[in-house]
Predict the structure.
Amino acid sequence: MDKLLSNIRIEVPEGIYIKNPESSQLGKKIVEHSIILIDEIGFEDFNFKKLGNRIASNESSIYRYFESKHKLLIYLSSWYWRWIEYQLVIETFSIRDTKEKLVKATEIVTRTTKEDQNFSHINEVLLNKIIINENSKSFLNKSVDAENKQGYFSPYKRVVKRFAEIISSHNATYKYPLSLASSVTEGSLHQQFIKLHFTSITNCNEVITPTHFYTDLILKTLTNEN
């Protein structure tokens, strides 16, 4: 299994990048250090000149891969959600009991990220922090509809739809599986954020995790529906 997983490639929709960063060592270096730098200084203060200085490369070389830092953020978000989908597939595939599968799926989309050694140039822990803090900036803009038509957000939507299918498998009569799946997926990011910054308005803390909250919520919601 470990050998199989090590050969898996995370595919990001074409069009987000000019040149696939997975195709060269420089491209992988751009992705690796953009994650580190955005985590350090935030997306607002991040730019390609600072990234170029960090990796000792010309700013122009980064533009050969991404036309803007906005597209780079979409790339990082897309990579993250494809990675979450990959976990959903691998970790739930052999589970036959629908409740157990639902609990596992909820855990996957809400848990605190651990580093995955199968992708050596991506620090998934830092990437998860970026998604918590910056993910909404990838689509809360005037270009969202055009970018959605181009398929840029398909990895995120695939996670929600796959999660919704697991919800429906457990309770086929529930009328709102997509709304529930998207609320849990997006809400878990929000709970992770306010757990760190607005502690007075959440019950989540170092003991009670967003996974605990959303597992309780989703099971009770689907049980009350029966």
About this structure: The radius of gyration is 18 Å.
